[in-house]
Description:
By secondary structure, the chain is mainly alpha-helical. The chain has helices at residues 27-36, 48-62, 68-93, 103-112, 121-137, 142-150, 159-188.
Amino acid sequence: MxxxxxxxxxxxxxxxxxxxxxxxxxxxxWTAIMTGTFLxxxxxxxxxxxxxxxxxxxxxxxxxxxxxxEKLVVWTLLLAAGTxxxxxxxxxxxxxxxxxxxxxxxxxxGITSLFIARDDWKLxxxxxxFFRLFDIVKLPPVSAVxxxxxxxxxxxxxxxxxxxxxxxDDVIAGIQGLIVLVVLARYLN
Length: 189
């Protein structure tokens, strides 16, 4: 006797990198694409998160002489822009946390590099490596926030929550990287 418990439901695979270019018409979708992909770096074929992190490093280096407050304003504005872009991606393509979005990596590595001086190249390399490590490994609470940002299968997710969720896990990974860098810098100096 077959019961509903015996039925296997195939898991639906969603292409989280797909961009339906025919839907990208007008200034708003194009602005969302350029913002979310951090000027197109997230559109590169492999390792979009790594490319987005690398693309953000010159901005982080450029603003290194700014005060911590000024840097936080820059990264907060980019956090808001990334949240908006994540929402627009969700609206356009119906996928929470499209993998082409790398503004989250830009903000995350910006947070990790918050206290680095321009001339400390070893810490710049460490910031890149530690941020990528925490972003990829997703130690708690990063993993929980990452799962939350994608929603539950079959349950519609508010696009604004999805947009913020795209950014939130990388902000936490950035803070984790920052903590390691601060400790590391203390022992190196």
